[in-house]
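Hi there, hope your week has been kind to you so far. Please have a think about how the structure follows from the sequence. I've dropped the whole record in just underneath, so have a look:

_____
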Amino acid sequence: MFFWELIWQFLQDVRTRTLRTILAVSGIAWGTAAVVLLLAIGRGFHVASSKAMHGMGDHLLVVWPSSTTKAYAGMQPGRPLRMKSADVLQMARSLPEIGRCSPEMTNWGRTLAFGPHRFKAPVGGVVPEYELIRNMIPEPGGRFLNQADVDERRRVVFIGNELKKKLFGDQEAVGQTVLLDGRPFVVVGTLRKKIQSSSYSGSDSEKALIPYTTFISVWGDWNVSDFLVQPDPPEESARLKRALYRYLAQKYRFDPADEGALGIWDTVESDRFVNWFFWGLQALLGLSGALTLGAGGIGLANVMFLIVRERTREIGVRIAVGAQDWHILGQVLLETLLIAAVGGLMGFGFSGLVIGALQLAPLPDWLGRPQFSLSVGLLAFGVLSGVALAAGLFPARRAARLDPVKALGF
């Protein structure tokens, strides 16, 4: 019964103080929309950036054999480390810390031709596991290189989606024969378009990949340009790096503490840094929205102080006839929360419309699409609740502590 009395009183106050209520509701609605939109935009940007970074591969270490930088066992620094594909594959079999591994040999600026179209592109020699390591997902109807291609040294090629457009346009590429430096190769697959912001040897969309054994038969047993490893378990990149240094230092006779002997790009560590960066960015965006909502909360608090002031005599009468402090406190708090709830619902509704419109807009891939998630909703609701309670608590306490004698003007 008490609750419905408070609701009725709230509706009476709204009717008699329409303009003030509208201003308070508008401030809360705008602040709520600011919190939701900024958090949703930050979340979408985070997801898009993470997807673009992982376009190159997940939990990936790219390793470049370099030169020693420390003297070791009577040998001077500056000795180059030269690794063959067989050495890399033997290492993968020897180290349990390695989940997946692929050597990579690259021949830059090779000519691919189909009909009248001729283009230069980097050509890499790899193993079938390269598909999963580097997220080289083929378009439907095609495939990546397989073990039979490697074992039989087949002249087959997997090409990037942009290279495919240059050579074939809108034609189907799978099954066609291209000339690679004048040698015929059958296209077995083309890369499905992916967002890729990270790279160490150019965009995957412009590359051609062939079995590493075919690469050796065509151009000779080159030293690997680099090799790729994924740790097992995926997050244990530090343990894998220590194992790599121990194994290679023993095989090629250099100091295991000579970090300059290997160039390593640890994308696991990069992921951790990027995730912290984006959490910080989202916190900054959320704080900006919370400050906007806080301004709306100040406006709401001012409205409630005015309501308490205008109803001083009424509150004094109620206290004089026996109303408890919590009754007065509850009434003012409820009115505040109801105004905040209406404003919050309007803010959530408006931000939902904006997010829906942005989902359909032609935004750049790197920016991503705003995403309203459960975490965004809960965080926005938490900020709104905190602001509403803060805005109502002080006017409510003031009303509950009124002296009935002074309130009635005696």
